Predict the 3D structure of the following.
Amino acid sequence: MMNPSFINELRWRGMLHDMMPGTEEQLAKEPTAGYIGFDPTADSLHIGHLVQIMTLVQFQRCGHKPIALVGGATGMVGDPSGKSAERNLLSEDVLRHNEACVKSQLERFLDFSKGSSGAEMVNNYDWFKDFKFLDFIRDVGKHITINYMMAKDSVQNRLESGLSFTEFTYQLVQGYDFYWLYQNKNCRLQMGGSDQWGNIVTGTELIRRKAQGEAFALTTQLIKKADGSKFGKTEGGNVWLDPKRTSPYQFYQYWLNVADADAPNLLRQFTLKDQQEANALIEGHAAAPHLRQLQKALAEDVTTRVHGPDALRKAQETTDILFGSSFEDFKRLTGEEIEDAFDTSLTFKVDRAVFDHEVDPVSLLGERTAIYSSKGEARKAIQGNGVSVNKEKISLERKLTHRDLLYGKYLLAQKGKKNYYLVVVS
């Protein structure tokens, strides 16, 4: 059976942004090695990286060889693309730890044992650690002109605010990565987000000038929500792949709550469902959007791939309990599971001394926490029968005591139908 076209796969999924002439022909001609770089600036990837991870997954499924480059060296420099200020440089020890964490996450998505198309992990620190500065500027720098480097958007956009020599040279360092992989791994293609085009084509130019070779470039769309806001962000910050940073429940909820306008694109881009399956789900959702078929399919697929089926099952159970009507069911959750269910932006800490006496709910919800913006707003909501504590509607006369605390520590506050908050007493 002939492998599907990688370019066509990206096209129907809405992932393709741009590619160098000849790229499609090269991929149609023969199985090709291609790479994407991941800088280890944190000890976990987040869902903003998932577009590139899924690009490599689709690349492998189409019969090509994916190479994931962990940027142990480039992570020490910092990429200026899309940045308004210079990043803090990390110590070598921190970078080595981050690399190991990133590698273990990438291994969940890619098949590293698949013969000629088996994925491979490389670290550019391995070829840069002994590369002396004078050798680099002689062997690499002489092939790329200052005019060429200055024309890049990543440089132009930072000229007024200031760009260090360190960041200015980033494109040379990334360009050499491509050259090294071309020479040592027969890698003919570099891929990345659309903001990486300038860095990627520096690599193809270096290969052309230094090795008289031909290499190719491809970029994917940067994902934005339909309302123009940044994909992958919540009030609490990034949605991470590491369960210690973002619990599987919070991760599942992120996908379950994507807007109807975003769900079709996200389903195509972040799942492995084929065109027929995806279209059937999209049509079913259009006919009955209240069932949220798209969001459920998306949340189940991505959560399973990132955290496994057991974590998905637990996230679904927690969802059913949290959004169910019984506080008795809620009490089945452990303290750890309760805290995992709430993003930091939905969690409020209150001093234990407050509960030495009866607590006025207006004061708790509108002053001691930020669940409501003011005591007046909290009072109005309670009078309108719109506030529940521990799954029970409360009145202005209802006082809260330590007897209301689950495990002597937690209160579940509900604002309207779907907005839940956790009050932690410590």
The chain has three domains: 6-220, 226-322, 324-426. The CA atoms of residues 125 and 131 lie 10 Å apart. The domain at 324-426 is CATH 3.10.290.10 (Structural Genomics Hypothetical 15.5 Kd Protein In mrcA-pckA Intergenic Region; Chain A).
